[in-house]
Structure formats: C-alpha cells, structure tokens
Specification:
By secondary structure, this protein is mainly β. It has no helices and 13 strands. Strands 1-7-4-11-12 form a 5-stranded antiparallel beta sheet, with no helix packed on it. Strands 6-5-8-13 form a 4-stranded antiparallel beta sheet, with no helix packed on it. Strand 2 and strand 3 form a beta hairpin.
C-alpha cells in the first residue's frame, strides 16, 4: 500500500484580517479531487479528516474486510491541532471483491461535530464521496466498495 499524509491548519484570518466576531465560524476549504497517483493495478482511497476542538480524542481505521487487513489507522492522541485538516492518500489493489470498513472513534463520546467544533470526515473511493459525517457519539462505522453486500 502507498500511504501519504498531509495536514494543515485552517486560519481564522481572511486576507490578513480577523473574521468578524459576529460570525465566529471556520469554514473548510473546498474539497478538490485528490491528486495522488497510484500504480495502474491500484486505485485511490482518499481519507479527509477535519479535527474538532479536541483532536486528541479522535482515531480512525480503514479495514479491507475481504482480506481481513488494516489498510491504515490512527491512534488517540495522534492529532494535536484543533480545527486542522488532514489528508491521507491510500493506493490499494484494484479488486472486484473489495469491501472496506471505515471506523471512527471519539474518546469523549461527542463525535467531531458539532458541540465542540465543526470537525468532519469524508472518504472518496473511485472518484466519489462514499462516506462522510462528523455528528456521532463514540463510534461510527461505514462499509463501501464493490464487494460489500
């Protein structure tokens, strides 16, 4: 598997000016199509995470159910910056029986949106968003891929 991670923090400034206090929201940048390159016999899974105000409470994993194998995962305490965008580009073998499970956990039990910030997660597979969210309790799990029934 090819695995590439990127992170950046969303700034509360627009063109050098602080956002007006009457609308203290942080908006995420538009989600461009992923621009990672995989080998011809692989396809891209793009994992996008925006942390909330307590990033160390978040962890996630991506599991290939068909082969009982963890593709990628993070741990509690791995994310340190509040309201920070994280990208992970994963190249996985092309397979007609591929079935993946994305699992996300919040240690405190309040998800990553909306009571403690505007966090979210989004998974793209075969060029489409297949999983997204942020408003959950302690745990959320979603399956995707051509081999999922």
């Amino acid at each position: 598997f090819y695995n590439h991670k990127e992170s950046y923090e969303i700034s509360p400034f627009i063109n050098g000016d602080a956002c007006p206090s009457s609308s203290p929201s942080i908006s995420s940048p538009p989600s461009p199509s992923p621009t990672a390159y995989c080998d011809p016999d692989e396809e891209l899974i793009y994992v996008e995470i925006m942390t909330d105000e307590y990033p160390d409470e978040t962890k996630w994993s991506l599991i290939n159910i068909a082969h009982n194998e963890t593709v990628s995962k993070t741990y509690f305490g791995e994310y340190h910056q509040e309201s920070t965008h994280h990208d992970e580009f994963l190249c996985v073998p092309i397979s007609s029986d591929a079935c993946y499970r994305f699992e996300i956990h919040d240690d405190y039990g309040d998800g990553i949106c909306c009571s403690e910030g505007d966090g979210y997660y989004r998974i793209q597979y075969q060029g489409s968003t297949v999983v997204s969210g942020g408003n959950f309790g302690s745990y959320q799990s979603d399956n995707f891929g051509p081999g999922c029934i």
